[in-house]
Amino acid sequence: MAAKGQAGAKSRASGNSVRENGDSSGIEKINPALAKWIINVDQVKVDPRNPRTHPPYNLEAIKNSLTHFSQQTPIVISKEKIIIKGNGTYEAALALGWKKIAAIPTDLASKKLLTGYKVADNKTGDLAEWDYQILSEEMKEFIDLDWQGLGWAEWELAPILAAEWHPPEVQDEDLPGGVHSIHVTAEQWVTIKRGVDMIREKLDGTPATDGRCLELLCADWLS
Fold this sequence. Notes:
The chain is α+β, with helices and mostly antiparallel strands. It has helices spanning 2-21, 56-69, 87-95, 111-126, 132-141, 154-162, 186-202, 210-222; strands spanning 38-40, 75-77, 83-85, 100-105.
């Protein structure tokens, strides 16, 4: 019994190691709930008419996601086994040396519906917005995760992780004469802060407040 228990523990340890390191081409990198949809990667084909491109930095983020979290959602394929959703996931899986992938067949049959779905699936994702307060709190709670490896640029992360989400309520009438406050969303501030930082870099060490940098940014735009 002891030997059997040790063997089982060894097997589980090996599986956990593979899941962490992403160095296996087996099905252990796929959510077991997707087992019925697992097929060989050479059974499907990328969409030659895919309007969505996947540059190297995008594929690297997908590879890191698959390595850290495994495949949690299946790709979608047509009856001809052409990928309708998940071309990036498929390419990343190939780059990782996977031999298996979870793929679910669509019931959409016409080219019109297939085209409409693949475009809509990408576009509807683009239309979503971030709640930067919640995002900041979540990222800070798990700061040890490789957020940059998962697609976040350093200039995006810096203001998100540094942000304080409890601004004081200040009315214009409470400010010194000639001073005005503006109210921006957390999402708007990320963009503004990037512009402010770019101006500050151009000043080459000359001290300047955020307000001054924003003024120079606006002046440059208006000139």
